[in-house]
Amino acid sequence: MPQTRTRNFCIIAHIDHGKTTLSDRLLEFTGTIQKREAQDQLLDAMDLERERGITIKAHPIAMNYTAKDGVTYKLNLMDTPGHVDFAYEVSRSLAACEGALLIVDAAQGVEAQTVANVHLAMKQGLTLIPVINKIDLPNSDLPSVKRQLEEILAIPADEALLASAKAGIGIEEILEAVVARIPHPKGHPTHKMRALVFDSTFDTYRGVVVYVRVVDGSIKAGDPVKLMATNGSYEVKEVGLFKPQQPKFFAQPMLNAGDVGYVIANIKTTSEVKVGDTLTNGRTPAEQPLPGFQVVQPMVFSGIYPINTADFEHLKMAMGKLQLNDSSFVFQAESSVALGFGFRCGFLGLLHMEIIQERLRREYDMDIIATYPSVIYEIEKTNGEVLYVDNPEFMPDPSVIFEIREPIVKCFIMVPNEYISPLMQLIMDKRGMLDHTETLDARRVMLTTILPLNEILVDFNDKIKSITRGYGSMDYEHAGHRADKLVKLDILVNGEPVDAFSSIVHRDKAEARGRILAAKLKEVIPTQLYQVAIQAAIGGKVVARENVSAMRKNVTAKCYGGDISRKRKLLEKQKEGKKRMKAIGRVNIPQEAFIEVLKAN
Ligand code: GDP
After folding, report:
1. Is 17 annotated as belonging to a binding site?
2. What CATH number was assigned to the domain covering residues 194-281?
3. What is the CA(67)–ligand 1 centre distance, in A?
4. Annotation-wise, does 21 bind a ligand?
5. Fewer Cβ atoms within 10 A, N terminus or C terminus of the chain?
6. How far, in Å, from the CA of 132 to the mean position of ligand 1?
7. CA dihedral 504, 507, 513, 514 (to 10 degrees)
8. In the CATH hierarchy, which fold is given to the domain comprising 301-371?
9. Residue 370 has pLDDT above 90, yes or no
10. Ligand 1 atom nearest residue 21's Cα
11. 55 touches ligand 1 (CB under 6 Å)
């Protein structure tokens, strides 16, 4: 089909505003699927993703639509992940499109996540079609939603289409608008082939499947191809389009400029395929790759350990499998005195971290414990050398550190008016600053704040939800690094540091955190034959201390020295118990004790 009859678009929406329902309606209306098939909500794959309100992987879908002008168009509906952790993937999916439907719930209005993705789409120069969905709801408030579109997103409200995905209202108008308003692809069919890689998956039967948007030229089976960023050379085995049903791959003789489709070549692992890379012809390679390629770097790190040490190999295998379809998740083996053998893992962000941990638990039935998450700190030494440290263990001695810089984020928070003051308190507690405030409507404001990434890692989103009784929402974008008074906090047991509890924290918060950790550890360390000191220290200086007092009686004392066999039994029993103990500074501590403290972290 010529490019003039192709439209590539995606849907931007906040969770629950109706993206899945609307996608199903579009597929039904175009006859791509039958009504009853739609019940499975084809676009959303994984349970976990639905629960968290995000989609990480969903394949694009091709539909044929005969418009009112009598012409049949090919519409490629792409999916975009709805979370900032995947902002780079979102930007590449958007780069593969010329336009986007922006869905806003008629009763809820514009939400924080919508704002960030609309900014991304505008930066890419996409044509946006605003769709106000759920107009059937009795509490829908069209004037308010229209004002928000104009004031917050700078989108003319008279461009908005009104729809009810549930009731099937406005579906044809949306399809007509896609055809009429979104520009067709404008690639050069005769230029050297360039295709944008926007995703890839691993299919058990086909191996690595690369998702591409052909920008210039064409590609077919048998072509030699090259990935320009990684320099890998391959031969194409198959090209094709996506279908919503299984089997979802639909082989074609060739893909042309403007097409969205897949390429299967003799690529061994998904790690060879970087999102944003350019695929070109190996015989007649393009001179310039497509713009915008970045190597995605993990932003958040944490140690993941099997609770049962015997599960190490199993955990390694499970992580390897997860990585096959998610090359942005990285891990390498490490060991900890307190927790034994495990892995240091890198994630794109907090949500990505939670998803991986949850998938290990649910899909692979792994019992795991994670250490306190850390960001990457830029540490400038007095000799000018700059180190990037994500693991407190590798922090140099304070005497050679000139300055520590931490990553900061610009965070958008939507909050109902009555909760502004407790929310501001939370932002202050998290070492944040208010940049500016915008009024959204009579009920809500949007706060733009600057916060250290490490402060929002653990419970920031939950706290916003609890302060605002679920009505607040937040999203963030990265905003560089800033120097601050950061220190390494160690927890010592009888003078020996417990590696799993070391963390990099702000100086003003170090003591409080040290006290909490020491107190928790005191609760779970069993009494020993002698007194045990638990200390929190910054660079050798103790800032908090707890004591576990010594056991009063010897365990064998009650045997009065008479019954030897009973005495031996008792000692043996003790020995068995010790097997699962970790010796830290002559103190035997059960591994469960560390796990208890980390769980409560
Ligand atoms: P997504 O999270 O954006 O994919 O949203 P879904 O499509 O899953 O929809 C979220 C909820 O809103 C579901 O319970 C839908 O049935 C409901 N919903 C979607 N569209 C409409 C609509 O037009 N009107 C009403 N009343 N409910 C809708």
Report:
1. yes
2. 2.40.30.10
3. 26
4. yes
5. N
6. 12
7. 90
8. Alpha-Beta Plaits (3.30.70)
9. no
10. 7
11. no
Tell which residue, 259, 263, 213, has the closest CA to residue 3. Answer: 259
Tokens encoding 520:
């928790």
Residue with tokens 């879908």: 61
pTM for this predicted structure:
0.76
Tell me the per-residue pLDDT of 573-596, one tens digit each, with 9 for 90 and over: 555 444 455 666 667 777 777 777
Distance, CA of 576 to CA of 566 (rounded, Å)? 16
Q: In angstroms, rounded to a whole number, what is the distance separating the alpha carbons of residues 163 and 174? A: 8
Q: Is the CB of 137 under 6 A from ligand 1?
A: yes
- The DSSP letter of residue 276 is T
CATH of 377-484 given 3.20.110.10, 3.40.50.300, 3.30.70.240, 2.40.50.100? 3.30.70.240
The DSSP result for 586-600, as a single string, is TEEEEHHHHHHHHHH
Q: What share of the chain is helix, strand, coil (3-state, %, to 5)?
A: 30, 35, 35
Dihedral, CA of residue 380, residue 385, residue 386 and residue 392, to nearest 10: -70
Give dist(CA 192, CA 187) in Å, integer.
11
Query: Is any ligand 1 atom within 6 A of the Cβ of residue 114?
Result: no
How many other C-beta atoms are found inside a 10 Å radius of the C-beta of residue 385? 11
Could you give the count of Cα atoms lying within 13 Å of 483 in the half-sphere of its Cβ? Answer: 8
Q: Name residue, tokens 């104009």.
A: 150
Domain 194-281 identical in fold to domain 488-600? no
Q: Is the CB of 16 under 6 A from ligand 1?
A: yes
Residue type, 26: L
5: left (phi over 0), alpha (psi -120 to 50) or beta: alpha
- CATH class of the domain comprising 488-600: alpha beta
Q: Say yes or no to pLDDT of 561 above 70.
A: no
Residues 133-139, mean pLDDT to the nearest whole number: 96
What contacts 31, CB < 8 A, 6 or more positions away? Answer: 64
20 lines ligand 1 (CB under 6 A): yes
Is ligand 1 within 6 A of the CB of residue 25? no
The pairing of beta strand 218-220 with beta strand 254-256: antiparallel
Quote the ipTM score.
0.99
Domain ranges of the chain: 3-181, 194-281, 301-371, 377-484, 488-600
**CB distance 162 to ligand 1 below 6 Å:** no
Question: Annotation-wise, does 57 bind a ligand?
Answer: no
CATH class for domain 3-181?
A: alpha beta
